Amino acid sequence: MIVEKESQESQPRDWGMAYFWPAEYLPKLLPESIAGRLREAQVNPWESAKDVETMAVVNVKTGGTIREDPSPGGGRVGRRALRKLMSEQIEVKKATCSQGYPSLHPQTVRAECEGRHSLDANLLIGADDGKSFSRATPLPFKMLNFNAKYPDDPYKARYIRDNLRPFADHGIHPMGVCFFKCLKGVRDPGDPRTWSFQVMITYPPKFPVPDCVQEKSREQNYAHDIIKILHTYIAPHCAEPRRSALLWLWEEHTVIPKDTLQICSPKQWDNRSGRVTLVGDAAHAVSFYRGQSFNDCIRGAVSLVDQIVKIVNTVPEHRDKAREEHIGQYIGQYDAEVFDRARGGGGGGEEVKLSAE
User: Fold this and answer.
1) pLDDT over 70 (residue 211)
2) Strand blocks (E) in the chain
3) Model confidence over 93-124: pLDDT tens digits?
4) What is the DSSP letter of 317?
5) Which CATH code is given to the segment(s) 137-261?
6) Maximum CA pair distance of the chain?
7) Backbone angles phi, psi at 53, to 5 degrees
8) Which of 212, 225, 227, 236 could form a Cys-Cys staple with 217, CB 3.0–4.6 A?
């Protein structure tokens, strides 16, 4: 069972996620009926993924390529489409768990929820995102993450798509601006007006944007003022197609949520004798710069599944004491692996540190 504080339909935000080096692990996590349909969740389900995609880093100022890295087996999926696909064979319950730590009971663990409800489980896995209030630290950068459409002219979306690196186009500007843009969704491949693009931009707090504009942007006309910032202070310094992609933004067609850029260096947690653990950003939230968050989550999920299989296969369910010992042992091994991998084996939080740097 998955417990969500919001229903699938009520979550308005969507973005693309790329996987590459852990692609080989996906068959271990998904039933064949789901794994064979991953194409449905691709940002462009009308095109087959290449055997080897390319991760590109470009100079936003000049448009020149800084480096390209091959990505065998890589794919880019939409968050909402992937969640919808994977929820077909999983019970998803809407509830909000309290902030208190789960309590341990004989052979189960209990999470208290709002409305005096509780959930009992054999294993409770925390999988909240990188904005978890208790585990995340803001980075000193302004962040924008939104979807852009160009419904007024089919030429615009086609021009942008044709001039972006198709799989991953990471941009770095000498001014300290990072600018990632890629295709996010294709409703009708024959009508570019239905296409959407993901835009992720960060810039340092000392970026030359007047304080009055930044202050006003915290108030009512947020999208209007952010687009003004993009038009005035960032687009003129960008090479194509990024310059036009920003200048063509319309307030009427663009929703820009307020975002913060956060990380979380891993900390040891009380796993309640192996009954509570964490996975993904809940264990080690990283920034998007290296594109590793989704990949680390997949790798961590595989490790957790491996340990659960060991528990099931090692001790019969009726041998309660022996099973409890193995649960603590195997889940403890998973916790140690995730903690060690995120910290680079040396206690320094290497994965998190690299993403921040």
Assistant:
1) no
2) 2-4, 16-19, 52-59, 65-72, 75-78, 92-94, 103-105, 108-113, 117-121, 124-126, 137-149, 168-172, 178-186, 195-203, 259-263, 276-278
3) 777 666 566 776 777 888 777 766 777 888 88
4) T
5) 3.30.9
6) 69
7) -90, 175
8) 225
**Which tokens hold the place of 9?**
């339909």
Nearest residue to 14 via CA among 86, 83, 78: 78
| Interatomic CA distance for residues 355 and 57, integer angstroms | 15
Q: Where are the domains of the chain?
A: 2-47+79-135+265-356, 137-261
Task: Assign 348 a pLDDT band (cuts: 50, 70, 90).
Answer: very low
pLDDT digits (tens, 9 = 90+) for 140-182: 568 889 999 999 999 999 999 999 988 888 999 999 899 999 9
> 280 is written with which tokens?
């993904």
Q: How far is CA 60 from CA 56, 164, 182, 203, in A?
A: 12, 12, 14, 13
Q: What does the alpha-carbon distance between residue 10 and residue 123 come to, in Å, rounded to a whole number?
A: 27
Residue 146, pLDDT score: 93
Which of the two residues, 282 and 285, has the higher pLDDT score? 282
pLDDT band at 190 (very low <50, low <70, confident <90, very high): very high
Copy the structure tokens of residue 49. Answer: 């993924």
At the topology level, CATH places domain 2-47+79-135+265-356 in FAD/NAD(P)-binding domain (3.50.50)
Give exposure, 195-207, as e/b (b: 16+ Cβ within 10 Å): bbbbbbbbbeeeb
pLDDT in tens, 294-324: 888 898 899 999 999 998 888 666 566 667 7
Number of residues that this document lists for the chain:
357
Nearest-angstrom CA–CA distance, 228 and 213: 9
Nearest to 247 by CA among 255, 262, 237: 237
Measured CA to CA, the distance from residue 36 to residue 215 in angstroms comes to 48
Q: Closest Cα partner for 300 from 273, 278, 318?
A: 278
CB 42 within 8 A of CB 49: yes
Question: Can you tell me the distance from the alpha carbon of 121 to that of 277, in angstroms, rounded to the nearest whole number?
Answer: 12
